[in-house]
Here is the input.
Amino acid sequence: MLAKRVIPCLDVKDGRVVKGKNFLGLRDIADPVALARFYNSAGADELVFYDITASHEGRKLFAETLTAVASQVFIPLTVGGGINDVSDFDRVLKCGADKVSVNSGAIADPSLIGRAAKKYGDQCVVLSIDAKRAGGHYEVYAKGGRVPTGIDAVEWAKRGEREGAGEIVLNSIDTDGVRKGFDIDMLRAVCDAVSIPVIASGGAGCTEDFITLFREVEGVDAGLAAGIFHSGEVDIRDLKRALSAAGVPVRI
Amino acid sequence: MIAVVDYGVGNLFSLLSSLRFIGAEAEVTSSPAVLARADGIILPGVGAFADARAKLAASGAERAIRDEVEKGKPFLGICLGMQMLFERSYEYGTHEGLGFIPGEVVPFSLPAGMKVPHMGWNGLHILRPCPLLAHTSEGEYVYYVHSYHATGCAGYAAAVSDYGIPVTGVVARGNVYGTQFHPEKSGETGLNILRAFKEITEGRL
Here is the structure.
């Protein structure tokens, strides 16, 4: 059986990890390569890198960072941030990324998903969705969760699958940063609607939140978090032991 | 030196990085002369079978690969590279493989609810001793991404993974080895499989 995945997410700006706090003996906590190596040895199943720079110089630094990480860490790497065209896929895949996540770029032009999937394979294209409760449904937001689009998140996930996305990262704007657990209702709604893997994001505050996620949402494949891992509050190895003890299949 | 066959299929960055990481000298090539002086050959591959098969034939490397395999040179096919070791594939039609190992490649026919592609970390169930698994233990996880799988090769399967059906993970026949998963993306377990291949090419395993 496939293992459920635990994925740390690293926001990278000007070649440095943002949000890195006091970290388990690492001298340079903001060094993406050191952090990636640490997470790899701690049992992370995959790493997600978000390029949060917008400048040309920042993009260049990001490419160098990614290349350095991919030369030393041999687990799947997903890259997001600033992916607006097929040429952006090319740019990060050349640096050793395995999957590329699109968000606002796909909202602006949904055909990007299919064009990239055709060129690089479905498994390479991750549709990242930022969504927020709006009455009885969930609304998709663009531009890093700042701009409401009027698009229904469940419909957008289904559209993404039809266009050729191989995986979905579902970020809940409501639970993000609150640390009171993942958005179980929204995850259920999306997992029931698509048959491609879904990665839960936003809201993890403790080990128990991951156990609840995998117990309550049968179809979910992975849990992603940033702050609780960077701060050292949750150790991935301990988390995976706890998941295993709770009957969740994980790679230990 | 390990030759990594370059025939215009897929990105070799991770494979080359992982070979360098374990201290192996690697050369990307389609040149028969380089393949001839290599200690071992790796055939990588992602994408569609027919396209990859045509590109391999067009690269000029195929004749050399057949000669070297015949001479007993260690050979490792990865992912689609493993699928090409078999007699044929039924991915969008029927296509001849290299025929190094009896068996064929078919689409998944899975129990309800199982997703295709088979993508993610799955455990290895080791069926028999195999030099490529010299540093690998029962139950270790490896990373798969594929929509077709090898069947009819039971005598040569060295390890399988459970995905509702037993999925052929490692095959071996004499000097020819294959992994359906990506050792270059399978963490320390994957590096240990590449280390074993390096040792095979050095005559140490």
Summary: The mean pLDDT of chain B is 95. The helical segments of chain B are 13-21, 32-37, 49-59, 62-70, 80-83, 187-201.
